[in-house]
């Protein structure tokens, strides 16, 4: 069981434990333009579903969470019935596999499964 630090994490801990998800499963993609990474999201895939583990931004860029890729990924998950488990600070950035995306495709559908199958950037609009 993952150590709990924040009130309300019990449900998320149980979900991830049931799915057998651990830090080694976390994969990351960045919401970024070509020069400046803004932030990203950590996902893992279990049973054909992407599970969002965490959202994060570069220091001082918390406001970027509402823009581009991160918002698009979150919207994709919530609107397509993908289980979402947010886990702040449970999956440290240095442990995540960095996978590159570009902003802004908030108006496009995101093929999360294709992304994890190909390990290639997708959804690029610029």
Protein described:
The chain is α+β, with helices and mostly antiparallel strands. The chain has one domain (10-104). The chain has three helices and four strands; from the N terminus they run αβββαβα. The protein has helices at residues 10-19, 68-79, 112-118, and strands at 27-32, 37-46, 49-57, 97-99. The protein has a four-stranded mixed β-sheet. A hairpin with a 4-residue loop joins strand 1 (27-32) and strand 2. The chain starts with 9 loop residues before the first helix and ends in an 8-residue tail after the last helix. Mean pLDDT is 49; it is low at 1-8, 29-38, 60-69, 83-89, 96-110 and 119-126.
Main traits of this protein?
alpha+beta; disordered C terminus; globular; about 130 residues; single chain; 4-stranded mixed beta sheet
How much strand? 15-25%
How are the strands ordered across the major sheet? 3-2-1-4
Tell the overall outline. globular
How many whole angstroms does the radius of gyration measure? 14 Å
Main β sheet profile: 4 strands, mixed
Instruction: Tell me the span between the first and last alpha carbons.
Output: 42 Å
Number of helical segments? 3
What's the number of domains?
Answer: 1
Average per-residue pLDDT, rounded, comes to 49
Helix proportion range: 10-25%
The helix/strand class is alpha+beta
Give the strand tally: 4
Low-confidence stretches: 1-8, 29-38, 60-69, 83-89, 96-110, 119-126
Order of helices and strands: HEEEHEH
